[in-house]
Amino acid sequence: MISVDEALQLVLQHKMNLGTEEVPLLQAVGRVLAQEVTADRDLPPFDRVTMDGIAIKAQSFASGTRSFHIEKIQAAGSPQTALATAENCIEVMTGAMLPANTDAVVPYEVCEIQNQVATVLAAKVTSGQNIHRQGSDSTAGSILVSGGVTVTPAIIGTLASVGMHQAKVYRMPRVAICSTGDELVDVEQTPLPHQIRRSNAYVLAAALQEAKVPVSLCHLPDAPETMQQELAAILPQHEVLLLSGAVSKGKFDFLPQGLEKLGLATVFHKIAQKPGKPMLFGKLPEGKVVFGFPGNPVSTYVCFQLYFWPWLKASLGLKTQPQKAQLAQPISFPPALGYHVPVTLTNENGVLQALPVKTSGSGDLTSLYKADALLSLPADQDEFKAGESFPLTLL
């Protein structure tokens, strides 16, 4: 049995080279960018008017001119015009090019316009006011977005601004999620007194779909030969197997043996932790990987969060920052196991406080939706004081 830290390091050592693909711009949201994005021209590409009003030469105002004859209007989207006389002005609209021979924009709110003459009511006009200067955001050729980041709507806007109708992103692995056990029936069925509905597979599938990972769902019966046959049929179409149940020492836990017959090289089987002690991780031919999670709902979800997500992020080149939170109340846990506690979080003066969620054990699925995170307590302590800080995994 290995430690929590050892298990995570072994998982990360087996990250997958997923390659890249190009997708239409709007399909890139939530994916991991696999390229640098550079400015194809200065941003903004011209001196841009930021308020509706009049464009003038600031020196004319400084010299005592307060009323300016309006020569013309400069609209947004129109070619640049030019001021012919320094004591005159041009009406300008937000987003328009700043007319040549002007260097200040006075908003309508501090102007009075009558008979094509704009009188400035402001006490002061400075050169450059209400102008978004060319290249002040970025210059042509500069890096706007680095690779290895999750594409957000704001990044989509940046890509659109430089004319990228497609984006290069890291390819997501094809994942099969398999529940096990004859006691499980599907969600639309009415369970008999000795049965329960499948839920673990749907929890994992929902999390992966939210991350744009393509998933398939399946269910494996408690019959070794049938289980092996169905796994053999699933493997060619998938690169990752997420298995829930049948990995412990029970009489019907046939998965480890079935996977070995399909070529599994076990990396580890059992972690000194609660929940999720029996977790299995291994490699299959062609570089495929298997995460075998214990069947209890909390165990499945905790192991998924602590080991699969870091593996996926590492495979996608995403960097993660370790986080910690302070325990809000003392906990006693004598077993020499890492203890992953579901917690709710509050922020007190910039410090995250983690309050344990009351739970009845690894089968208490409803406790998961109440939790914000997992607080991981080390195996070499049995008393954990309020105010101590421990590693945090946001859910």
TrEMBL record:
Protein name: Molybdopterin molybdenumtransferase
Function, as annotated: Catalyzes the insertion of molybdate into adenylated molybdopterin with the concomitant release of AMP.
GO biological process, one term: Mo-molybdopterin cofactor biosynthetic process
Domain MoaB/Mog positions: 176-314
Pathway as given in its UniProt record: Cofactor biosynthesis; molybdopterin biosynthesis
Keywords associated with the record: Magnesium, Metal-binding, Molybdenum, Molybdenum cofactor biosynthesis, Transferase
PROSITE patterns: MOCF_BIOSYNTHESIS_2
Species per Swiss-Prot/TrEMBL record: Rufibacter immobilis
GO cellular component, one term: cytosol
Co-factor(s): Mg(2+)
Catalytic reaction list: adenylyl-molybdopterin + molybdate = Mo-molybdopterin + AMP + H(+)
SMART domains: MoCF_biosynth (SM00852)
Enzyme Commission code(s) on record: 2.10.1.1
Similarity section: Belongs to the MoeA family.
Pfam families linked to this entry: MoCF_biosynth, MoeA_C, MoeA_N
Source organism, top-level taxon: Bacteria
An example Gene Ontology molecular-function term: molybdopterin molybdotransferase activity
